[in-house]
Amino acid sequence: MQQVIISVVYHTGQGHTKQIAEILAENLQSEFSRVHLINVDEVKEQFDLLHESDTIVFGCPTYFGDISAGFKQFMELTGGFWYSQVWKDKLAAAFTVSSSRCGDKLNTLISLALFAAQHSMQWISQGIMPRYCSNEQTEGQNRHGSYLGLMIQSDNARELNPPHPGDILTTELFAKRILDVTLKFKNIKIYNYEQSTN
Q1: pTM above 0.85?
Q2: Rounded CA gap, 78 and 94, in Å?
Q3: Which intervals hold domain Flavodoxin-like (predicted)?
Q4: Is 14 helix (H, G, I), strand (E, B) or coil?
Q5: For 4-197, which CATH class?
Q6: Nearest partner of 112 among 152, 168, 154, 56, judged by Cα
Q7: Strand partners, 57
Q8: Which residues does residue 96 pair with via DSSP β-bridges, in sequence order?
Q9: Rounded Cα gap, residues 194 and 92, in angstroms
Q10: Among candidate residues 2, 7, 19, 53, the one with its CA nearest the CA of residue 160
Q11: DSSP-derived secondary structure letter, 41
Q12: Which of 87, 99, 30, 95 is nearest to 67 (CA)?
């Protein structure tokens, strides 16, 4: 059976970004995909796997309105093969986490999209509309109104609590979109998959 390879590369500080990376990876998994979860602390040994991937999802916390230092270090490591454009026309998507509702997370997503563009990758937007009830936006899917990528709000507790239910739903829907776009981009016509998700 033909399968796509999707890798989720993330940096985490307190564990909140890892939580979202795991939810994404779980929902990206299907009989039509092979999914790999890679912490940037271990990425040096995983570059061959990233080179083989059809889609790479980038994830990091937003610290002081931008990407985390740990993820920036990973980005700079790719300079060794950037010039040869090894990732050209691979698909890319991104997510970020901060403890405030906004936290300037858009700036982080823009930085990640620019990073993907430097590698000539094709960007997958979030593609999930927010929901309204009686003219008020709900706390359900895409409650942050983000379109470039996935935004998640965590708490500031030292213990790791579950994400907001609306953010979990949005993460699950984003995973489905990433898988759908990857299969279409690779021109894999898997009718059983299409029927099972419609």
Answers
A1: yes
A2: 17
A3: 6-179
A4: coil
A5: alpha beta
A6: 56
A7: 8, 93
A8: 60, 151
A9: 22
A10: 19
A11: G
A12: 95
Among 2, 131, 128, 4, which Cα is nearest to 57's? 4
Confidence class for position 168, pLDDT limits 50, 70, 90: very high
131 Cβ contact list (under 8 Å, min separation 6): 137, 138, 140, 141, 142
Burial class (CB in 10 A: 0-12, 13-18, 19+), 101: exposed
Burial of residue 79 (number of CB atoms within 10 Å: 0-12, 13-18, 19+): exposed
- The answer, yes or no, to whether residue 30 has pLDDT greater than 70, is yes
Please write the tens of the pLDDT for every residue from 43-67: 999 999 999 999 999 999 999 999 9
State the Cα–Cα distance between residues 35 and 23, nearest whole angstrom: 12
Cβ neighbours of residue 76 closer than 8 Å, sequence gap 6 or more: none
Map out the domains of the chain as residue ranges: 4-197
Tell me the residue type at 118.
Q
Q: Give the mean pLDDT of the chain.
A: 91
Q: Which of 123, 21, 134 is nearest to 71 (CA)?
A: 21
Longest dimension (CA), the chain: 53
Q: How far is CA 163 from CA 18, 98, 153, in A?
A: 11, 11, 7
